[in-house]
Structure formats: C-alpha cells, structure tokens
Amino acid sequence: MDIKSILESKEYDFLRSNSLLKGRILFLTVGGSYAYGTNILGSDLDIRGVVLERETDSLGLTDFEQYVDTKTDTVIYSLKKFLKLARECNPNIIEMLYAKPEHYFYVSPVGKKLLENRDLFLTKRAAYSFGGYANAQLNRLENALARDKIPHYDTMVHINRSVINAAKSFETKYKLPPDAIKTYVGAWQAGDKEEILVDFRIESYPLAKLRGMIEEMTNVLRDYNNTVSHRNHKKDDIHLNKHMMHLIRLYLMCNEILDDKTVHTYRKEHDLLMDIRNGKYREEDGRIKDEFYQLLASLSTKCEDLKKETTLPDKIDDNKFNDLVLMLYKEARK
Predict the structure, then answer these.
(1) Can you state the angle between helices 270-277 and 236-260, rounded to 10 degrees?
(2) Are 55 and 42 a contacting pair, CB within 8 Å?
(3) 27 has which bridge partners?
(4) Which of 127, 214, 245, 267 is least surrounded by Cβ atoms within 10 Å, i.e. has the fewest?
C-alpha cells in the first residue's frame, strides 16, 4: 500500500484545506496495525500526526486539543496536548515518536526537531503506562473469555489492577504526597459483595483535582461495564486474538524501553504477533493454550525485573522539557 499517495487523494484533502491544519502540521505518521506491522487484508489505515495549534489555543482563549476525521480514522494532536501526553509516556504517543523512518509521510523542520528529542520522553513511567495498557488488554482478554463465568471477586481484582496502574501517575500529575491513595478489593459492609474500596490520606486538597482523580479511576470501571454490555458474540474470536496480540506487543515494547532505552513501534517479533492474531495460541474449543500464558508470564516477570534494574530516569527532566517546549514554539511561530 502506497500510503503517501493515499494521503494525497481527495479523501484526505482536509489535511490541506482545514483551517486548523493547513500549513500547521508538524508531522504525519501511521498508527495501529500498519505501525506495528500486524496489518491484514481489510485493516484500517490509522493516520496520526501533530499540528501547531493557534496562538489563542496556546493561551487558553480558544480550545483545540485534536482534530479527528472519523471517516478516515485520522487523529491529529495539537502540539500542546501531544507534549503533555508524551511527558506522561503515553503508549500511543510514544509509538508515534518511534515509527519506522519510512512511516513519516510528512515532517516539518519543527517536527524534525521534536522527533530528534524523542528520547527525552522515555522514563520509568513506561513501566506503568505501557503496563497499565497491558493490564487493560489482559482484563479485556479475560472478559472476552468468560465474562459470565469469572468469579465476582476475581473480576474486582482484575479491575482494581487497572485502577492501580491508572493511579501511578497521580503523584506527579496531581501533586499528591506518597501513598495518598490506596485501592483494594473488599466488602464495604458485612454481607455486601466485594467491590473496589479506596482509602484517601490527604488534607486541604483542591476539590477539582480530587474530582479529576476520581473520574480517572471510575472510568476504568465504566469501561469494563461497557465492554460487557456491548459484547458481540460473532466477533469474539477475532477480538480475543487481537487482545492477546496487543497484550504481548505492549510487554515487548515496555521491556525494550526499560532495557534498551529505545523502542521500535514496528516489531521484529512480527511472526509471533501474527501467529497470535491468527489463532495459533487457541485450542480448537476456543481455550487459550498454556504456551500463551507461559509467554505472558515470562514477559511479565522480565518487566518486573527491569523496573528494578533500568537506568532510565524516574521522570522527565523538567529543565530539558521546558527548554524543548520553548524551542519548538519559538521556531514554529517564526
């Protein structure tokens, strides 16, 4: 597929004509299966990119965070939002920074400088951001296998695991003291079913920030309930295989970041990932083979070891980040 030619087609004219994008795009790349090398016939083409927002957006006078074209599955992030997510080591954003060279279909001079500084965004947060995404995939995997059969307590444990990962960034994001929030599974009152309980150990804290944290945690529960209520039996097998593949891919990428201080979005483990996607790790009756769980356990254990051994910084260098932001905007506004 000649993606660059497709981007020049009439269907993608909005990239050149929309007032929010015209002459402002910093770089364009591809996301999803084409980025990972796991695309098959019929796979969606997900174009991703970064655009310099208007000065009024930067100043907060107008509000533009991203441009979405649902018809073409295109998402273009404002530079402001992109940098915020990159600072948090968001997996979707990191993937955009580490695409194959030939998967950058347009790069402006400012976009080039952004890509040249991509290593700045790799920190120990990757263990929690990529790990959080992996646990979310694991939850989807287990939900798809036996939503009605998993014991209630185990379901709560799975959801709480995702809540804990979502909360890993709170200390920095919401300026919380250490151990300010603790979530666990238990019964609120005698005789109640187990649910996720929360302990807050904070005083004189802004209500707006507290609301933000609660929304992030409850979104995990909401997403689980939405997954259950929108179950599509006809697509279960296809979706299950994709969940399995993405779970392994996320661990592979996380471990590479922690170990090698770099990452490749287009995976060298292509054959393994495609075997998983094509159902090689499923029994004839639909059960997942033991070999898959052994692979998962091995990657998960390695991730835990690398968390302790990695020499990546705990968080991004604030001074270097600020210098980069100022340089990018100064160059872009010339």
Answers:
(1) 160
(2) no
(3) 50, 107
(4) 214
Both structure tokens of 2: 């000649």
Q: Give, as one character, the DSSP assignment of residue 122.
A: -
Give the integer Cα–Cα distance in Å for 1 and 109: 26
CA end-to-end span of the chain, whole Å?
Answer: 36
* CATH 3.30.460 assigned to 3-122+313-333: yes
How does strand 46-51 pair with strand 74-78? parallel
Q: Answer for the pair 134, 247: CB distance below 8 angstroms, yes or no.
A: yes
pLDDT confidence tier of residue 230, bands split at 50, 70 and 90: low
Q: At what angle do helices 290-309 and 236-260 cross, to 10 degrees?
A: 30
- In the chain, domain spans: 3-122+313-333, 124-148+234-312, 150-232
pTM of the model: 0.75
Task: Write out the two tokens for 173.
Answer: 């994001």
The answer to whether the CB of 1 falls within 8 A of the CB of 103 is no
Strand pairing category for 106-107 and 74-78:
unpaired
- Residue 314: name the closest of 178, 210, 212 by CA: 178
Tell me the H-state helices in 193-289.
207-229, 236-260, 270-277
CA distance 19 to 32: 26
Q: Looking at this protein, which amino acid is placed at residue 219?
A: N
Helices 318-332, 109-116: axis angle to 10 degrees equals 170
User: pLDDT digit string (tens) for 286-328?
Assistant: 778 889 989 998 999 999 999 999 999 999 999 999 999 999 9
Q: What is the pLDDT of residues 109-119, one digit of tens each?
A: 999 999 999 99
Contact partners, residue 184, CB within 8 Å, separation at least 6:
160, 196, 197, 199
**Rounded distance between C-alpha atoms, residue 59 and residue 16, angstroms:** 25
Residue found by looking up tokens 């996720």 in the block: 196
Give the chain's count of helices (H) and strands (E): 15, 7
